[in-house]
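Researcher: I'm comparing several assemblies side by side, and this is the next one on my list. It has 723 residues spread over two chains. Same procedure as the others: predict the full complex and return the structure.
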Amino acid sequence: MQIGLEQYLTVSFLLFALGLLGVVMRRNLLVIYMSLELMLNAANLTLVAFSRFNNKLDGQVLVFFIITVAAAEVSVGLALIVALYRRRQSAHVEDLTSMKL
Amino acid sequence: MKLELLPWLVLFMPLAAAVFITLFTLRCKNLSSFISIGAIVAGFILTIVFIHANGWQPAGGESVRQWLFVDGLNIDFGLRLDPLSLMMLLIVTGVGGAIHIYSRGYMHDDSGMARFFAKLSLFTFSMLGIVLANNFIQMFIFWELVGVSSYLLIGFWFEKPSAGDAAKKAFIVNRLGDFGFLLGILMVWGLLGSLNFSSLQGLLSQNPAALGASATIAGLLIFCGAVGKSAQFPLHVWLPDAMEGPTPVSALIHAATMVAAGVYMLCRIFFLLNPPALEVIAYIGGFTALLAAVIAVQQNDIKRIIAYSTLSQLGYMVMSVGLHGQTPAMFHLTTHAFFKALLFLSAGSVIIALHHEQDIWKMGALRQKMPITFVTFLVGGLALSGIWPFSGFYSKDSILAQALAQHNYLLFADGVFIAGLTTFYTFRLFFVVFCGKEKSEIASHAHESPLVMTLPLIVLAVFAFVGGLIGVEGVYNRIFSGEPSQSAGFASGLFEPFTHSPVAASLGILAFLIGLACAYALYANSEKDPLPEKLGGLATAMRNKFYFDEIYEATFVRAHDFIAAVADWIDRWLVEGLCIGFIRGGADLTGRGLRFLQTGNLQTYAFLFVLGVAAALYFVLK
């Protein structure tokens, strides 16, 4: 079976959907964060696939940028979660409803 | 025109006095009164100087400044200077000046004296504005200003509920008339496109049918203003109540000047009135004169009797205008200003001597105690009754002669009958108050008023006596009939009515004699009023002013209250409840619904965010 663009896109869609479900349904902030990374990587996979099948390198360059930014973002996000945990003694989203009036 | 500045000074000095007193000298009684008296007396002198320099008919006749110009509507602020306005200027400042001086004595013990003089000056300013106005808009503005100052002065003793009510009544009834006046003004402007008196007169003399079919309506609408201000039937009810104000106010505003404004206005715009309108005016005037004279016979309040006689005399003047007699009307207005101011001020002198007692059946025998007031009141009474050679005789006779000349015998008989009634109630008042025995404790302790009050009385008495012979009529004749004033000699002027219209003159004197005889027979020595027993129910009706107040209360006031209640219901339930409530309630409900979306849960937000993105993508990629 020839593996083409379609298969790559299907995998990337599944990854994105899994990540989205995780974000919407899981309770632990850390797991939500991991799901978020999953969605990001699904996007990366799509970019790489398009780059390969279009015979252009633009997409791959973009992926490098995304990985770099994501690394920075992860460090900031994790720091926030740790700070939140120290303050509230909890990393569950049910406990973080202070945005409700 | 020489000394063009003077009329402007005359007009604006009282305003300056009113403003100055209100702003600076409200605590200083004497200074305030001097400022106010000074403004009006100076106005009188400057008017004389102006007339001396320019004659009665100044060249040009107008002194105009442009005030407003709005797309075709040009409103000037101008002074009309002709014999009519100059004579009125003399009356207002002259009689008004005497009353101002008298007020110093009358209001001496009142804590609000400075306020009183400020209002008096404001009134003088407004009245002069009406007199000098050269166009309808300016006249209407001052017309309303006069209404306001009359309101302020009637309600001067505002702590008395009756004074407050009377002030409100006067203002509201006047507004009814003024509404018609304004409609009339708008109609004239709409039809003729001008508001200036002289240009209107020019337009109408070129084309007498310019007003077309609505001429009668326009004339009668304008007459509505005079009905309100000159207290003609059916809007006469406010004037007797206005006697709640201080007596000098009654003399100045509700006898000599303001109520005469209606008659003055009719003479000023006479060219706008066509025969049908004039006929209505004549009959309304005649009816008012009769009605008021009959009511006056059974009143017991000294000021109210004189107030009803004012109504009756105003009816005479309006009737005269309606009979094409502007000269007799203005002539009677002038002499009436003299003798009615005199009567009111004499009555005020009596009232002060009796410590604000106004019931004539508690007075009596004041002849010996108040000799000056006695004489001045007698002069005023004789002039009002119209006996030769007092001023009232000449003016009343000219009105009767006018009725005869117009062959309107009904109104002529009406006038003669009223002349008799006038004598009757005047001398009823006179005999009860000044003759007979003292009818109360206070009356026996009465004493003459101070010089500051008696001096104006004497001056006015002189004019009430000779006012018919000093050439007033000639001045008015200059403008109304165009003929130069015939300077008839004093002696021939004295007997002129008998040669001019012997029937009117002799019938007038006959009516006087009959009225006097009746009054003497009934009241010369009576302790109480003998008429109620003789007349029965009629006397009760007369005492109760033919129940006009009650009728108006039951019809117009009730109807007005009903309309107000309906309007209140509409406002409360339809406007407030349905319209405003619906919008407000709708916004409230939407807000409450949207509040459920804000859960505070991150994941809900994320989910809604995804839904939003999905929807956006769907629409973009479709």
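Model: For your comparison table: Chain B touches chain A at residues 598-603, 606-607, 610 (CB under 8 Å).
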